[in-house]
Amino acid sequence: MVSEKSEPLFALDIGTRTVVGLTAIPGTKGLTIKAVEILEHETRSMLDGQIHDIPRVAELIRRLKGRLEKKVGPLRDVAVAAAGRALKTCRGKAVRAVNGSRLEADAVRGLELEALEQARRELAGDEESAGRYHCVGYSVVEYELDGTAIGNLLGQRGQEAGAEVIGTFLPKVVVESLAAALEAADLRMRALTLEPIAAIHALIPASMRKLNLVLVDVGAGTSDIAVTAEGTVVAYGMVPSAGDEITEALAETWLLDFDTAETAKRSWQYQEIRFTDVLGHSRKVPGPEFIQSMASAVNGLSELIAREILSLNGRPPAAVLLIGGGSLTPGLPESLARKLGLPPDRVAVRSVEHVAGFARIPARLKGPDGVTPLGIALAALEHPVQTAAVRVGSAEVHLFDFRDLTVGDALIQAGIHIRSLFGRPGAALTVTIGGERRILPGSPGSGPEIRLNGSPATLGSPVTSGDHIEVRPGENGKDAWCRIEDLIPPLQSLSVYVNGESRPVPPRIFMNGDRVKPDTPVIDRATIEAYIPERLQDVLEDVGRPEAFSQREIHFTWNGRSVQHVHPNWIVTLNGGAAEPGTVVAAGDRIEIVEAPPPVLADWLVTNPERSPGRPALTVTVNGRLVRLDGEDYRAFRCNGRPADPGAPLRDGDDWVEVWDGQVGEWIISDLFRVIDPEKLRPADARSFHVEVNGAEATFTTPLHTGDNVRLYWT
Question: Any idea which UniProt keywords this protein has (predicted)?
């Protein structure tokens, strides 16, 4: 704060083309300007707001100071501004796993600061050089939750959160070279601000800064941009194009040298513009024609400015204020309004007539290029930028309070990575249960424990010079852990009777194909299946009788060929009926398990598909109708050389032979009576039954052969 004293307030605007100095004395009606001096650089000792030749700039400052001292007396302290065109803007993005935990204010703030760190590293090119930049402001471009843009992260839950910011940075070398030039001119820097902030102080009172406004300082080489919202400056930008581009376009159109084109440009409001081109021709150009000749260049400049405004602000602002000598370019406000989609009256040139806080403003500062030096004086009086020395742990860091400083700013300047302060969330468990994928989050990591001058604080807590910050990183969260029984829904129990005894059937649980117990810990990316068994085989396994469907193999020879017979060890019935392993079981069912009898040949004969030939099938014609008699097996057996019957035991290594029973005869007439009832052929008055085979009389024992023609009749 500059106090009222005998020495007047000295404000100095060191521009690329000129240096403007003024002295003023505070009074009841505001600042009274006592003297103004303006000097132009004789060489290109300033480029885009950066001092490139400290001795030459210092000499020009010394000369200007001397002229002012002749009017107001000795000057020792000075208020200055760092050029807005020296500001560097860069985007940064940070993404952090949050594993379903709710996002609190400090976590969101920490995510923004991580993105700001990344932007500063991106701008510097490496970690070591990042400390060469002071952050003077940032604004959030976008929040993300699980890959989807979202308006506000506060209070949200998700797996992954992200933030993208635009950060504005001032290289330390700008401030250091400015201080060096002042020191060489025998001056002390007592107040520092940024040119855009100075202009905003002059043109936009605090009551208006809630509005989303944009200030554009159109100079010679650059157009500097500042964005206000919610009572503060939220973003800065710069376009490397301004009034000189218009001058160069005129020089090319009318064949002029740069200085002549610049002089002609400043005369655009005249009805007739007179100049001599490089060929020596004197020209008289009507004002409207001359203005039209610069329209294309004006359109190009407004396009660049509009694009930068939309990039910084994300949308058209409420209004745009133009200052600087280049803002007087004809058609620029209208063209910029069209590019931004704003009504023409929302883009306006502002001059010192709109600056409050001065008792009187000299004519030399009346134009829009006088706004910045007046703003530097006001900023020095109302809100000078101070250097804040803050201790972080045992280290001391220096911050410029271009904006309200916070604990987070101090930690970043101290080289502390914000991400490292937040405990990592515990690893989540991803599980598939019954085909449904579920994610079980680990516990959230805790935020840092921050103490400011011994009291609890947050990353957003304000700090001032002399403050002491102590920070202890948060602890990592615990990995997700649970048992299978914590995840599976309750399963309805099943109870059955086995040999008359009630037996409960537990649920079957499998993890990654292996059967496990309910209290088994779940592993990540596991596939879990749980169900009450219904197949009889599964039920018997789970009640302790897995052997119920077991079998044994018996190997023997049959007619000289090696064969085998598979015989059950047990006979299983369900509710009194035959049962198979896949038979479905219901609660209350009765299962009986008894030991199977020893195997006999008949068991194998039932399942053996091979049949030895016996008497072949017979097909004959009876009374004009085909009749078929199925063939029959007539077999006898020998086991190990001795006669045996189908009820004989079947043992490993036995030698079985099937033999034909020779007593079995051919088919005869009487065999037909198995399928034909003679009584059904008998008329009511018949007495005698007759048989003919192939036209010859036959008896009941006459042999039959396939194809024979048989006649049966009564007389």
Answer: Cell cycle, Cell division
